[in-house]
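[step 3/7] fold_predict: job queued, chain A
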Amino acid sequence: MAKILIIDDSVAISSLLKMHLGAHTFRDARDGQEGLSVARDFVPDVIFLDIQMPKLDGWDTCRQLKTVR
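[step 4/7] structure written:
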């Protein structure tokens, strides 16, 4: 079972991903800043990342995720 982090401001997209991916452990974040915080604590195996989000977009979030350990 994979640990999956979904960083997306759309609740509908997040729900669809969970439905199609099946039985895994999920965490959600609604923007890049929240996603970085969740990634530090949750340490996911996979991250689904939206590009267009408020506060911190997907590109900047991705750059910062590279430094999370």
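[step 5/7] annotate
The chain has three helices and three strands.
The beta strands are 3-7, 25-29, 46-49.
exit 0
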